[in-house]
Amino acid sequence: MDGRRKSRRELKLQETIQKMRKEKPTISQQFADIKKELASLSKDDWENIPDDLPDYTVKKKKKERYTPIPDRIFEKGLMDGEMNNSIDPNEPVDGISTTNTNLNELGKAKSSVLSLVFDKVNSISKIFILDF
């Protein structure tokens, strides 16, 4: 009984696959005739195909990044009496470009500054050891 069901199921599956292939042929089936024509292409014709065709691949668009503005910029604007409440994203702020900031380099710089601060604190704490 199981064997008959299995064979019927497989036959039904094969029929549905054949039906779908007739409705939607695979890409290789769609271009099979063109592939055969390429076999008859002469060497000169093959070499005359241009190599510098544009790239038509679909690329993901980069999301626009919004970076929060540090408070010191707002404070500086308030002190100077400026009323402009927007910043040009292409203009560097305090020598740091807001558009092309490499986060890896920024992390390395931050860790080196922190290590210097900790070394300084560690050396000061060795000098001022208090015994109670």
How big is the Rg? 34 Å
Strand content: under 5%
Described by the principal axes of the CA atoms, the overall outline is elongated
Number of helices: 6
Total number of beta strands: 0
Sheet/helix structural class = mainly alpha
Distance between the termini: 91 Å
State the order of secondary-structure elements, H for helix, E for strand. HHHHHH
Number of domains: 2
Extract low-pLDDT stretches. none
In this structure, how is the largest beta sheet organized? none
Helix content: 55-70%
| Residue-averaged pLDDT | 78
Folded structure, characterized:
The chain has 132 residues and is mostly helical. It folds into two domains: 45 residues, no CATH class; 53 residues, no CATH class. Helix content is 56%, strand content 0%. It has six helices and no strands. The longest helix has 25 residues.
